[in-house]
Amino acid sequence: MKIKMPLRDLQQGDVGYVCDLTVSGPLRRRLLDMGLTESTLVQCVLKRGFDASAVYFIRGARIALRAADAAKIMIYVSDIEENV
User: Is 2:76 a contact under the CB 8 Å cutoff?
Assistant: First the structure.
């Protein structure tokens, strides 16, 4: 089962797939330019606290995003119980 959630809720070491960007304007263009398009694999590499920035591995690059920006990126993650 797929679970939809904001990227900011992804825990360190977990992976997900981009499904939607809930932002418009220059920030949307910036995120798309970084490769955050539908079905892109994203891994949380480093996370520091709830409201701090986090580092994500996206298309071969490590990219730091503020929690406020990561909250506008929706991802799908697989339910762990599905694989058991």
Answer: yes
pTM, 2 dp: 0.88
Domain residue limits at 42:
2-79
Asked if residue 23 is part of any domain, the answer here is yes
Contact between 53 and 19 under an 8 Å Cβ cutoff? The reply is no
Q: How many structural domains is the chain composed of?
A: 1
- The reply to whether 84 falls in a domain is no
- Per-residue model confidence as pLDDT tens digits over 74-83: 999 987 654 4
pLDDT in tens, 15-29: 999 999 999 999 999
